[in-house]
Amino acid sequence: MKRALKLVAVAALMAASGMALAQKGETVKMVRIDPLTGLLGPVGVSQAKGYQFFAEKFSGAGNPAGVKFEVTTIDNKLSPAESLNALKAAIDQGARYIIQGNGSSVALALLDAINKHNERNPGKEVLYLNDAAVDPDLTNSKCSFWHFRFDADTSMKMEALSSFMMDQKDIKKVYILGQNYSHGVQVAKYTKDTLARKRPDIQIVGEDLHPLAQVRDFAPYIAKIKASGADTVVTGNWGSDLSLLIKAANEGGFNGKFFTYYAGVTGTPTALGQNAAGRVYQVSYNHYNMGGQMGKWQAEFKDKYKDDFYTAATIRIFETLGAAMAKAKSTDPVKVAAAMEGLKVKSFNGEVEIRKADHQLQQPLYVTVWQKADQKFRYSPENTGMTLAPVKEYPSYVSSTPTSCQMKRPSGG
After folding, report:
1. 268-279 pLDDT, tens per residue?
2. CATH number, domain containing residue 313
3. Which residues, including other chains, have CB under 8 Å from residue 7's CB and lie 6 or more apart?
4. d(Cα 160, Cα 32) in Å, to the nearest integer?
5. C-alpha span between 309 and 230 (Å, rounded)
6. Residues 41 and 114 in one domain
7. What are the CA-CA distances from residue 253 to residues 222, 223, 226, 323 (Å)?
8. Mean pLDDT for the chain?
9. For residues 174 and 195, is the Cβ–Cβ distance under 8 A?
10. Could you give the CA distance from residue 43 to residue 32 in angstroms, rounded to a whole number?
């Protein structure tokens, strides 16, 4: 009798432990919708490699749920309309986890479509994992239970960047240049707001918005910047729009500073060259000289793909999904989303948390400066012999900004 009871107890224990990994071995289909062609295509292509690389790292024993991550990509040509077609195709293929980042205009279109899909198709919901679209509206007026952002938004980055600029007494006249869509507009807004609060003596001597991914010659913009007397440019430009801007500045003899969001992204390090040393700064949640596990991953990635890894939100997504799926004992998006709310995970630079109120990841931010690579800061993007060296770190509580989100959750969510 005692032996029978013991066997029953062991069986119950095994069943309970099995329940914790009820989804072990299950394949989680994920589709990333982003540009793979056109002027901004090289950024998306590089990021797609990152998803393949880390899907392998975090699959199976690499995550506490024991699931396998499978990531495919669809080229949206940076078009909201193309993105909606891609979303339908992804859902038809059985994907319930959608990833996107490049272009807040695309992000807003996808979010609206995903909200509608989930409302109309209970039991077939999909989650939207945002790795780079930083319009603050996405976690404020447009916030959604189905959306999680792993990048820091425009206001968070500007909070850190303006805190750094506040102490740079040689900054007196600022020119704001950006891409003419939601992100560029928001960068301009928060630049003016934060500088007015922290350095009211700084003059804004010019402001321009240009078409997204269409300008091939920024010389006319550089001429305007020089004519304004600006000693500093603040820009949210990324991809070719930043590479070509810096190239034009170097060729046009503009020797002022650039404060950027994306100086380390594909193509820009080469455009920066040696002439930009000490003049170009970046604010980000990751940088090329993190060291530790991140340094090992970057070296392995570069050896495998002959490319540079920089979109660390990729890592955060896999870390968070694995932890949430283990916590929820399910891969169902509704249960996983609920488990992700308020979730804390230990990541490559310490503990990070998904704020329950708006699904915005809270994380440290770094300001780095372009300089020659040396013994202390060795990593050289695009084999330029240069690097982005950290000059200031801002803990999560410094860069965090309030949210106006009024989250509507599904019943039981």
Report:
1. 999 999 999 999
2. 3.40.50.2300
3. none
4. 29
5. 33
6. yes
7. 9, 9, 9, 50
8. 94
9. yes
10. 13
pLDDT given at position 412: 54
Range from 21-35, 65-79, 172-186, 245-259 carrying the lowest mean pLDDT: 21-35
What is the residue range of 166's domain? 155-288+364-399
CA distance 106 to 198: 32
Residues 6+ apart with CB under 8 A from 362: 352, 353, 354, 355, 396, 400
Buried b (16+ CB within 10 A) or exposed e, 189-202: ebbbebbeeebeeb
Q: Mean pLDDT over residues 142-158, rounded?
A: 97
190 and 204 part of one domain: yes
pLDDT confidence of 333, banded at 50, 70, 90?
very high
**pLDDT for 374-399, tens place per residue?**
999 999 999 999 999 999 999 999 98
Tokens 């440019």, residue?
Answer: 233
C-beta separation of 198 from 162 below 8 A? yes
Looking at the predicted structure, is the pLDDT value of residue 404 above 80?
A: yes
- pLDDT exceeds 50 at position 126: yes
Beta strands in 182-227, from DSSP E residues, in sequence order = 203-210
At 169, list the tokens: 């007494």
In three-state secondary structure terms, 177 is strand
* pTM passes above 0.90: yes
CA atoms within 13 A of residue 17's CA, in its CB half-sphere: 5
CB 237 within 8 A of CB 179: yes
Q: Are residues 30 and 129 in the same domain?
A: yes
Least Cα distance to 323 among 337, 340, 335 occurs for 340
Q: At what angle do helices 41-58 and 313-328 cross, to 10 degrees?
A: 40
- The backbone region for 258, taken as left when phi is positive above 0, alpha when psi lies in -120 to 50, beta otherwise, is beta
Question: Are the C-beta atoms of residues 234 and 195 closer than 8 Å to each other?
Answer: no
Considering only CA atoms, which of 366, 365, 363 is closest in space to residue 377? 366
